[in-house]
Amino acid sequence: MKKTILALSLALAALVARADEGMWTLYNLPQAVYEQMKGYGFALPYDRLYQSDNAIKNAVVNFSGYCSGVVVSPDGLVFTNHHCGFEAIRSHSTVEHDYMLNGFYAKTYADELPNKGMFVRFMVDQRDITPMLEARGIGKMNREEQARLLDEVENELLKEVHAKDANLELEVKPFYEGNKYYATTYREFRDLRLVFTIPKSMGKFGGETDNWMWPRQTCDFSVFRIYADPKTNGPADYSKDNVPYHPQYWAPVSMEGYREGDFAMTVGYPGSTERYLSSYGIREMRDADNAPRAQIRGVKQDVMIRHMRASEAVRIKYDSKYAQSSNYWKNSLGMNKCIDSVGIIRQKADFEDRIAEYQKWTGYLKGQLDLGLLSRLYARRFDASRQLTAWMETFRRTAEFNDRALRIAGKPAPVNPKAAKSRQYYVFEDNGSEWDADLDRDVMATLIDNYRQYVPADRLPAFYQTIQSRFGGDTHKYVSWLYANSVLMKSGTRIYLHSKQLQRDPGYEYGRELMALRDAFRKDYLQGADTIARQEQYLCDAKIRMEQDLPHYSDANFTMRLSYGQVGGYLLGGHQSGYYTDAQSIVSKMEAGDRGTIDYQVEPVMKQLLGQADFGPYADKGTGKMQLCFLTNNDITGGNSGSPMFDGKGRLIGLAFDGNWDSLSSDIWFDKRLARCIGVDIRYVLYMMDRWGHADRLLREINAR
To answer: Domains in the chain: how many in total?
Structure first.
């Protein structure tokens, strides 16, 4: 009896110690986790998370497949981050009407701007379908066979869903490294319009200088509206006749703020974590993924920023591309630093030793989990993994010419598939508004030169010999020649896919050589990949079995998750970080901007607005200060951007937009002592909407209290 009590006590103690860790699915949230949330200050009943009509999950959206957001009004207003709305804002910007630079406010419904290809998804339902898949033999299949089965089952379930409601969508995803599978049903709205954004100087205040850092003062938000069919209030493609959507539930917005130690919760769509990944997988991530990615993106970004600073038109075209690239550049640098400073590989290896002992003691997964085999397979594919990363970062989505060359070499579907083979053609549409030829050529040539360090000379594509023999080693001349002599850059021209002319085209040959190289690397990389995946699955299974007295969450996979914790700071450089920033701190940085720090430069009106002595109802009632950003120990990752941050009563107090520098290793190892979620205070958001944007109609609609 004493041993049982002791074991239970240890289990509960462990749960308490890691209570702020975890990205939990809502439909099956463990009762122990809910009880811990209540202990932290969560005051709502269990069913207010997922089951009830006014459940919090009903206000949270997947924002366009890469971010999160929250509905905050009865007329379908959605808050997300400024950087989540970045591409929409950029796409509507011109030199004459630069919404990136100057911001935007739609004063009427008619002024709200539609956005092609953007959407929001509401999660309707989620369920475990593992028994169904196990009955159909998924556990005995390789990855290719599993993929086919999952597609088959997903289509079957989708038909069932569509029979009930044609506006629903469904997807099946693996959880717990493939030990579980859940089917999630969504309702997708495809008419999403831009309503409000502040200037980039505030929406991205601090730029790369402050990215992933604390303290922060960024006012990282934008406002969109969901439009619906006027007859059904359901999803519809864009139409001028659509009307604002009336949601089932929307999140109340709070003006009360927060104190240190208060309960805080994020609900959103975290993209990807690998908390169950082996030490061998982490070593591959550090040295074969992150290191080349950081180096190559750093080189690319140096070229981009030089061109962007020379031309406003170029800057508008590339603002979003640069931001996306630099975010993961800094992420890779920071993650590698944390892996080494925290000693994550060693800690993982120590845990794997415990797993091996547990396996020896219990016989669990005997003859299946083989850590020695896992180590050898990772070592065998290391070079291929590094070379594949370098190829992807150098040639994929780095230059318009590369994109076109790879697409045409990949045999795209013809425009006229029913025509005779000799007459089948492809056309590149004119997308000149999205890229700049001078920048494109410069980036492409620079990256081709940089790529030499990653591949042995005898495995470089043949065009490297052409650069040397025909152009005297001048890659920029080679790239200019490709531009001038390839049909690929002639937008609107019919490219006959089976013609001898195309076979001789230098751009087509360039693309074929790149594809052949990628395929060779991929072939090497995929050898043993099925076994690696299976061993990682076994390792996850063994961990959960060994810790069966504790609840376990699955790695993030861009399905809705809940994380919880408390408002509070951490030790930063041996000193308490503080848990919020205030208006005075941003004014100090703005003064540094006046002295030349580009990332802190803002319009004079912003300094005036935030340098005031009286902030009215937006000032915190406890501190008397205008609080800008704040810290919690909520567990987040990429994809959580725009996630609502709720207090214990389920009221919106902020939007998550970043983690701190010490959280960059959280995708693989959550350090509750140091990892923090950074959010923008909702009162800061409302203040800017009010005092800068004069968005009275929106403020009345939101009705913050």
So the answer is: 3
> Could you list the residue range(s) of the whole structural domain that residue 690 is in?
15-104+194-275+555-705
Measure the CA angle with vertex 259, ends 257 and 261; round to 5°. Answer: 135
pLDDT tens by residue, 205-252: 999 899 999 999 999 999 999 999 999 999 999 999 999 999 999 999
**Tell me: the pLDDT tens digits for 12-53?**
333 333 446 999 999 999 999 999 999 999 999 999 999 999
Using one digit for the tens of pLDDT, what is the confidence trace for 666-694? 999 998 888 999 999 999 999 999 999 99
DSSP state of 141: -
Q: Report how far residue 413's alpha carbon sits from residue 415's, in angstroms, rounded to the nearest whole number.
A: 7
Residue 6 lies in a domain: no
What letter would DSSP give residue 196?
E
Residue ranges of E strands in 551-613? 561-566, 571-572, 575-576, 580-582
- Asked if residue 437 is part of any domain, the answer here is yes
Quick one: which of 678, 686, 691, 679 has its CA closest to 705? Answer: 686
Residues 286 and 232 in one domain: no
User: How large is the average pLDDT for residues 408-414?
Assistant: 94
Beta bridge partners of 576: 571
Q: What is the dihedral of CA 551, 555, 559, 560, to 10 degrees?
A: 40
Q: How far is CA 53 from CA 58, 59, 78, 161, 353, in A?
A: 8, 10, 19, 20, 47
DSSP reduced 3-state for 702: helix
Q: Would you please indicate which residues are annotated as catalytic (active-site) residues?
A: 83, 220, 641
Determine if the peptide bond prior to 215 is cis (ω within 30°). Answer: yes
- Full 3-state SS string of 388-432: HHHHHHHHCCCCHHHHHHHHHHCCCCCCCCCCCHHHCEEECCCCH
Residue 353 domain flag: no
Nearest to 307 by CA among 404, 437, 431: 437
Here the CATH number for the domain that contains residue 690 is 2.40.10.120
Q: Report if residue 113 sits inside a domain.
A: no
Give the position of tokens 């504790």: 550
Contact yes or no for 76/225 (Cβ under 8 A): yes
Final residue of a structural domain among 189, 207, 239: 189
Which H helix or E strand runs over 327? helix 312-342
* Residue where a domain stops, chosen among 526, 541, 563: 526
DSSP type of residue 625:
S
